[in-house]
């Protein structure tokens, strides 16, 4: 008994040493990454949020602590509230169209096609291309005098369109570009979800008399729900922070009618050097993004719990 207890103790000590060794290795790997994040992102983000409580206009000015004055000014100024509201509904529109288009693309890529890998690569190329370069291609297409689209309209006897002076066309092209940029990644994730659905569920639905729509509704969509939740949350967070599309396609025009909140933050911080308002707007943007993501996740989780069929435990003798 004594020898057995000694061996058990030695094995326990050995396991503890192994765990400690693994913990030290993990800490050695993660610590430099954490320090890099802290220096490159953590401290600048925190500093930017703290700027919202100071009145600081111009780098040569002395910052003055003003409590919540910048936040009050934000909600009293229609320029900021309009930019915030535009960010929310534009982000929701981009996310909705991207998810729907990505789902359709995933269904097409899941079909038995020749050279499927080539098509999947083509769909994903926009996600890894430079935004600066691709927006310049869009601007070439939309040039008022020599743009490809206006040249086609002229050849048809139509009047050319001055895209930069139209709010609706500006919003349209921002949405088109954002969807084109994000649909590839969305489609590949949903494709992975489609291929993870158990094939026996489709066989069972066919036995029950389900048609193609029935299988899509009762088998495919429920199987894709975890993937869809992840896609919607990440896409919504990204879409709420749209900036580059606005900067390079419309530059916030005409007359600020396509200006979103992140673009407004950029103007305050780097054009007007109103660092206090830029910090306040950044903090409000962060709160909105977190709130939207949490609300959608809680709603999705609640809906999933409500659709779960409760199983009654069997009584003894059954």
TrEMBL record:
<feature type="transmembrane region" description="Helical">
    <location>
        <begin position="88"/>
        <end position="109"/>
    </location>
</feature>
<dbReference type="Pfam" id="PF00528">
    <property type="entry name" value="BPD_transp_1"/>
</dbReference>
<keyword id="KW-0472">Membrane</keyword>
<dbReference type="GO" id="GO:0005886">
    <property type="term" value="C:plasma membrane"/>
</dbReference>
<keyword id="KW-1003">Cell membrane</keyword>
<dbReference type="InterPro" id="IPR000515">
    <property type="entry name" value="MetI-like"/>
</dbReference>
<dbReference type="InterPro" id="IPR051393">
    <property type="entry name" value="ABC_transporter_permease"/>
</dbReference>
<dbReference type="InterPro" id="IPR035906">
    <property type="entry name" value="MetI-like_sf"/>
</dbReference>
<feature type="transmembrane region" description="Helical">
    <location>
        <begin position="227"/>
        <end position="243"/>
    </location>
</feature>
<comment type="similarity">
    <text>Belongs to the binding-protein-dependent transport system permease family.</text>
</comment>
<keyword id="KW-0813">Transport</keyword>
<feature type="transmembrane region" description="Helical">
    <location>
        <begin position="162"/>
        <end position="180"/>
    </location>
</feature>
<feature type="domain" description="ABC transmembrane type-1">
    <location>
        <begin position="84"/>
        <end position="296"/>
    </location>
</feature>
<feature type="transmembrane region" description="Helical">
    <location>
        <begin position="24"/>
        <end position="57"/>
    </location>
</feature>
<protein>
    <submittedName>
        <fullName>Sugar ABC transporter permease</fullName>
    </submittedName>
</protein>
<feature type="transmembrane region" description="Helical">
    <location>
        <begin position="275"/>
        <end position="297"/>
    </location>
</feature>
<keyword id="KW-0812">Transmembrane</keyword>
<dbReference type="GO" id="GO:0055085">
    <property type="term" value="P:transmembrane transport"/>
</dbReference>
<feature type="transmembrane region" description="Helical">
    <location>
        <begin position="121"/>
        <end position="142"/>
    </location>
</feature>
<keyword id="KW-1133">Transmembrane helix</keyword>
